[in-house]
Amino acid sequence: MNAPILEALAPRRMELGPFSPAELKPATRRWQHWHLKRDEQNVAWLLLDKADSSANVLSEAVLRELSEIIAALKSDMPAALVIRSAKPGSFCVGADISEFRQLKTEPDVINQLVEAHLLAQKIVDLSCPTIAIIHGAALGGGLELALCCDYRLAVKGATFGVPEVLLGLHPGLGGTARLPDLIDPLVAMEMMLSGRTVHDAQASKLGLIDQLLEERHLGNAVAAVLAGEVEVDRRNLRARPFRLDWVRRLAAWRMRKQADSKAPPQHYPAPRALIKLWERHGNSPDQMLHREIYSFAHLLNTPASRNLVRVFFLREQLKALSDPAKGMHKPAPVRHVHVIGAGAMGGDIAGWCALQGLRVSLFDTEAKNIGTAVQKLTALCQQKHRSSAETRDILDNLIPDPANSGVAVADLVLEAVPEDLEIKRKVYADVEPRMKRDAILATNTSSIALEKLREGLADAGRLVGIHFFNPVAQMQLVEVVAHSTARSSALERATTFVGQINRLPAPVASAPGFLVNRALTPYLVEAICLLDEGLSAEAIDQVAIDFGMPMGPLELADQVGLDICLGVADMLREQLDSHLPDTPDWLRRKVEKGELGRKSGKGIYRWKHGKVHKRYHRKQAPRGTQERLLLPMLNACMACLREQVIDDADQLDGAMIFATGFAPFRGGPMHYAEQLGFDNVAAQLQELSEKHGPRFTPDPGWTAVADE
Prior knowledge:
Elements: H1 3-9, E1 34-38, E2 43-48, H2 60-75, E3 80-85, H3 106-125, E4 130-134, E5 137-139, H4 141-147, E6 151-155, E7 159-161, H5 175-182, H6 185-194, E8 197-199, H7 200-206, E9 211-213, H8 218-226, H9 245-262, H10 270-281, H11 285-300, H12 303-321, E10 336-340, H13 344-355, E11 359-363, H14 367-383, H15 388-397, E12 398-400, E13 412-415, H16 421-431, E14 440-443, H17 450-453, E15 463-467, E16 477-482, H18 488-500, E17 504-509, H19 516-532, H20 537-547, H21 553-560, H22 562-575, H23 585-592, E18 606-608, E19 611-613, H24 625-642, H25 649-660, H26 669-676, H27 678-692, H28 700-707
Parallel strand pairs: 2-3, 3-4, 4-6, 5-7, 6-9, 10-11, 10-13, 11-12, 13-14, 14-15, 16-17
Antiparallel strand pairs: 1-2, 7-8, 15-16, 18-19
Helix pairs in contact: 2-3, 3-11, 4-5, 5-6, 5-11, 9-10, 10-11, 12-25, 13-14, 14-15, 19-21, 19-22, 19-24, 20-24, 24-27, 26-27, 27-28
């Protein structure tokens, strides 16, 4: 009796036209990556379902099969062609980036793109109506495929983007011509230059999609298209002024100025290449399509793009570490997090976990700190464009817990109290007896060895480090810190938890500073040394920015907090034979006075409303400043590899890029060192050591790796 009610309440199945679920099984496929069938109205339903992949990507094999299918349809034209994904997660997330690495020369790329463009044009030229049905993400080549269709119907929740610029490229399957021809060219260019994602309602407003629907209405929408009841205005009046050369030149000048400020062309050539392409050929879509091929082929073979493609795979490698399906035993997901300490880090960690859908209880001895955390989460929801209803649900996830009672029910108890060994031990003594037997005890410490923190615990095997970076909502990397008695099951569950909250885990060993702080500290300390020698903070930071860093070391120190930097430097100086110079008295006095950087409004720089205020200095830093800043960081990275703080150089490169913003177009610090030559790095360090002191002494790892 209740079965019909339950069936009605169940989620609506995907609208797949004439296909039954049984027909989508691998054994029934005629094509490896596509399903094709006509319904009673002679509408051909073509479903993309890339074999052995959780998401659809446009590989060479996928496109080759699509070309064969389009040729077959042309010989027996259907009443309409519907293209959609058979995978529930998304429509298509773009090109198969792994194949980019196989294209070694520009002629190779050009040949592939010419074939792909001919296929896209065949879809455009079909005499029957073509309809793309989009759910989930339509990105890069996936969106470009949809742009070849006459109509685009989207399911609520769909997202759209052309993120190729993040790989040092621009769209290569006709997007540079078709997107500005469909919507406001300025918006189209901004989407391509920024790589940002557009959500369903905005896409509808822009005219990127023709109808935004619930899944249950898609069948009727396709029927309405066939009946001629869906009228679409393709005139794109906003594009008309930009057919004039002088109008495009003026707009291109402004675009170049803005793009150069965010992505210097000497490091990131793709934005300028795209602007040049549109400026010269934006009045002729056919010419844009033609020139797009050659521009894309050139960009793909630049060092910037090759390294950014490398960074894409570094991210995938780190992301895979948190995939529970990869391990022998699937750890239970974390559903309730209890955070102890609602300060700058703890409050933000709790808010981020709540934003990701976890239940979070937050304890602090000061109730006002919990209130501040709730306010910051509200602001974060606004920044993330959450609706009022979504914001309410997210805030409901965050439970103020002044009684600290969440300890007893949490799957993960995360301590984020001040960096004081005795304070942390008191917290553990209080909470450990009340924790669930299988719960994880985690610390967000940035500098205290876990071997010290585990002393006194009844079950030291459950203790792990889960070290976030500031600001929590922006920094993608989280260090998962192991110690010799940590249980593998606790580490696996902690790593999976990092993936649950949409962050990248970096497994590291408990060692002074772990990885990121160990590598960053010599870089920051050298910047202080240069400041002591009379260089301006602005000139020092500019050297790092010119190298490709998102900000200079002194601005970064202010961002992190001078008190945190000082504490880590003191710890490393005490625990490592690194010859770090003593911290100058003026810096200690700053910290004592509460001039801690961004969080206090004053540090090395002055800060207002969270933004740094710098003075203009004409005098530049002397030659050799870049080497003095960066080589100590590379030296520390090599030491971490040699000491096995982290497993391999690729993981190290990914961790440094996603935790510090190390110039992505250089592929990571160890990759950059490899390009310089390990022998050359060691020689430069030795030269600096003789000139400036033993803090530059080359790590033994340089010689060992070079010999290998």
